[in-house]
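Our collaborator T.R. sent over the components below with a one-line note: 'Predict the complex.' Nothing else. No constraints on interfaces, no templates requested, no preferences about which chain binds where. So this is a plain run: every listed entity goes in together, and whatever single assembly comes back becomes the starting point for the next discussion.
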Amino acid sequence: MREELVWLDDESARRVSAWQASLEFVGALGLLLFASGRTLLQGRVEGRETVHQMAFIGAASAPIVALTSAFTGAVVTLYSASLLTQAGGGSFVGGAISLAMTRELAPILTGIMVTARCGSAIAAQLGTMKITEQIDALRALAVSPIQYLVIPRVLAALIMFPLLCMIANFAGVLGGWIVANAFGITLNSYLQSIRLLTEPFDLIGGLIKTLAFALIVTLVSCQQGLGTRGGAAGVGHATTRAVVLSMVLIFAANYFLADLLFANR
Amino acid sequence: MNETPALETRQLVYAVENKTILKGIDLRVEYGEVLGIMGASGSGKTTLLKCLCGLIKPTAGEVWVEGVNIAPLSERERMPLRLRLGIVFQYAALFDFLTVYQNVAFGLERHRRLSQKQIREIVRERLAWVGLEGIENLYPSQLSGGMRKRVGLARALAMDPHIVLFDEPTSGLDPVNAYQIDRLITRLNRELNLTAVVVSHDVTSLMRTSDRIVMVDEGQIIAAGAPADIRASEHPKVQAFLRMASAEAL
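Returned assembly:
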């Protein structure tokens, strides 16, 4: 397997049809996944860079993930509490929110927010490195761009996404409770319905989803960045494609994972 | 003189998208010489340089680096061989998220078993060689174009390469900085017996630094020889290029 096939140099740039472009994308993503897996299995990990990326992807994303999750929990409660209290089911509001957050909203929000914040930054940074020959400089110094740039980002995302998802779960349920409280639902009743309706696997399943999202965001963003062609406009296109493709793939993967993990529960 | 050349290409061809960029280049670079490769933009000289260091895999032909044909090797197999070469990129290609110190120490930290003290010493020495001391903590964005190129050279020299490849070392520089870079190449060649390949369209600079010059046009070598031979060449394209370069210099 040729590592250089993961990205195409400027001279290989050509006009291709949408189908060819899609096939190229799938092929390049597959090669990148394969090369990353092989590098990881060989234990070649840049520890310092991985920690740096954990701070960037994880710690720095935590506030925005918490904030968006809290508002999402709040707005879902706004609708569900209004309906459920009218139907006499006010005591199920906490459970409904926690179920929605753990299975669906927290993993998706984590994926989307990190894509917007970090996926775009990864594609832009790697794209700029590509067009300014910094990727070639890495190779010239006998350092694999996959080892130095891709693996730390993938590893950092795999470690931090589940943690961010836990934060999103907590923030969403907290945001939900603040609104539920306004509807006269007590904390005791809110917590009791969470315990009644939510099972440990709901949380675990959501966390498993985030691992898939972590792979999607980092691999797509790295592939788009490393495949950047042209100048500043090329970086812009790569960044846009990284965000759009990551989000589309996250939603698609979410459906299949939901079917796989929760359809029979 | 060593019988094995420092670098050699045999019938080197590089083609992409039905366009042949290099059309059977035969080139030999001896140890200790400075070879200039001149040609107009798009003539294939940078592609030739990238083939020489293995950053581009040729379509056909052979590329010999210190007696090893790197053309059929995989990226992984070519990597350790690249450490024998230092490459100075056109716009320096410094890692913009690292300081000058981290840039110069980058290869040492990964490929040499050295203490931090030894690495510090090497970085300080290489920066001194290129006339840049005390800038270790600056980022590339805080440096001028000429300083960036010299840091790029210090980074390439940090690994003690036998051969250094320069891609347009003077492009974008004012005459004073360009002259400094030329002097640096000449000094390193004389003092360290460094083999250098300089790709440039700057004729004045190549005439100043090179022991031998080849002219590449449309992927082929159309003239080769000492600077005086090139100046005296009767090849119409060489003459036209030299006339244009003189006019541009004025």
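Summary for T.R.: Residues 45-262 of chain A form one domain.
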